[in-house]
Design a protein that fits this description.
glycolysis; triose-phosphate isomerase activity; Aldolase_TIM; single chain; gluconeogenesis; TIM Barrel; globular; binds 1,3-dihydroxyacetonephosphate
Length: 252
């Protein structure tokens, strides 16, 4: 099917990467420039590499993103990073509400909603992650869970233009498992419809990414699914050749 939105391929490095791994970011930059402007490529390294990664990628069209942030713009929050700090380092995107933050750090929809507000106020774009656990899927609650995450974590009073949503089933992350094409199409269609209910006429502009065990070998199939406008990639984004192969698999 024809895709109308510019695909976004985003790499989430999670808690991986030392300064020596900036070579991999340079390789993503060099290869990504060849993939051309048809696909938007963003790398989200750990905070410690953000500024260096951004300066490596400056002017290349390859974007840089953070993996989390605090909702406030500054203050007495030891160990936290504020949205304007990410912007100051050269980031343009921030991943929010990743299941590893929801489950390991107990992040609630309400906190994620405040973070989205803070990120938008700083002029950054949020990549909001949603997704169900294996148990929630096996008991038929996947759509309800994601519906609740969307309703609870997207502030009603903000524009959704520029917002990116990543559907990442928890059970597919780092496991090698992926949902069926039918299940992904159903979920992405559901997310689009939910956005349309609250922001009539705007939902079609929001890119919906799929994330969870995306690899070069399954990327073309996953990226061709209706309402899949790109991917959020963990493990495979650490290897420039694999990440670029996924970007090259976008149907553009
Ligand atoms: O969590 C993910 C991206 O945010 C997906 O991780 P994997 O690609 O390693 O399954």
């Amino acid at each position: 099917m024809t895709k109308t939105l510019r695909p976004l391929i985003a790499g989430n490095w999670k808690m991986n990467g030392l300064r020596k791994d900036l070579d991999e970011i340079a390789a993503i930059r060099d290869g990504g420039v060849k993939v051309g402007g048809a696909v938007e490529i963003v790398v989200c390294p750990p905070f410690t590499l953000l500024a260096a990664a951004a300066s490596l990628c400056e002017g290349s069209g390859i974007g840089i993103g953070g993996q989390d942030c605090h909702p406030e713009k500054k203050g007495a929050f030891t160990g936290d990073i504020a949205p304007p700090m990410l912007k100051d380092c050269g980031a343009t995107y921030v991943i929010l509400g990743h299941s590893e933050r929801r489950l390991i750090h107990g992040e609630s929809d309400a906190l994620i909603r405040d973070k989205i507000k803070g990120v938008q106020a700083a002029g950054l774009a949020a990549i909001l992650c949603v997704g169900e656990t294996a148990e929630q899927r096996s008991t038929g609650q996947a759509l309800a869970v994601v519906g609740e995450q969307l309703a609870g974590s997207i502030p009603r009073d903000v524009s959704i233009e520029g917002l990116v949503i990543a559907y990442e089933p928890v059970w597919a992350i780092g496991t090698g498992l992926t949902p069926t094409a039918e299940d992904i199409a159903e979920m992405h269609g559901f997310i689009r419809a939910k956005l349309e209910e609250s922001w009539p006429g705007k939902a079609a502009t929001v890119r919906l990414l799929y994330g969870g065990s995306v690899k070069p070998s399954n990327a073309a199939k996953l990226l061709a699914i209706a309402n899949v406008d790109g991917a959020l990639i963990g493990g495979a984004s650490l290897i420039a050749a694999d990440f670029l192969a996924i970007a090259a698999a976008c149907p553009v």
